[in-house]
Amino acid sequence: MPEWALDRIVIGDRVRKDMGDLASFAESIKHRGLLHPIVVTPDGALVAGHRRIEAVRLLGGKKIAVTVVDVADLLSAERDENTERKDWTESEAVAIGRLIEEQERPGAAARTATGRSYGRKGKGELDSNLTASSKHSGEVAAIAAKAVGMSKNTYLRARAVVAAAEAEPGKYGDLPARMDETGNVSGTHDEMQHRKNGTAGRHAVHYKKRYPKTNDMIRRAVDALEGICSGLSGVKVEEADAVASRGWSKALEGAAAQIRRFARRLKNVKK
Question: What residues make up the domain containing 40?
Answer without folding.
Answer: 1-68
